[in-house]
Design brief:
Number of helices: 5
Oligomer: single chain
Helix content: 55-70%
Order of helices and strands: EHHEEHHH
Distance between the termini: 64 Å
């Protein structure tokens, strides 16, 4: 990854998040700009964008801000060299729990989608019944 810094507008474009959302995530402690310009503008790196993308992917699955914070802390600690073995395994188990939770939430979304598609098909059928002469 390069050490290039980007302003919030470019980050918003790349992540498809609004400026307001990115600022909110900063206010809640989920992401912190890597630097500030002399004029005080937020500056972000590729690592910051990767972090925002994790948050963006968790949001539609209904994870809370606290869960997002915990998962990001877990991955940060896992990525820290020299983490003691016992702590490392506990962190891996926490990550496994998040993976299981995500899989369950995805399964639930598939069920909701199937029900929504059935409903739309029912409406189409009703429309077809009432458009025939």
């Amino acid at each position: 990854m390069d050490g290039r810094h980007m302003q919030i507008g470019e980050v918003a474009e790349r992540t498809e998040l609004s400026l307001r959302t990115i600022r909110h995530y900063e206010d809640t402690g989920l992401v912190t700009p890597s630097a500030r310009s002399q004029g005080g503008f937020r500056l972000y790196t590729e690592a910051d964008i990767a972090r925002l993308m994790v948050i963006r992917r968790m949001k539609p699955l209904g994870f809370t801000l606290e869960e997002m914070r915990d998962l990001l802390d877990t991955t940060d600690r896992l990525d820290t060299p020299g983490t003691p073995t016992a702590e490392h395994e506990a962190l891996r188990e926490r990550l496994r729990a998040y993976e299981r939770t995500a899989a369950k939430k995805i399964e639930d979304l598939h069920i909701q989608l199937a029900r929504a598609e059935d409903f739309a098909a029912t409406l189409r059928n009703r429309l077809e019944q009432h458009t025939r002469p």
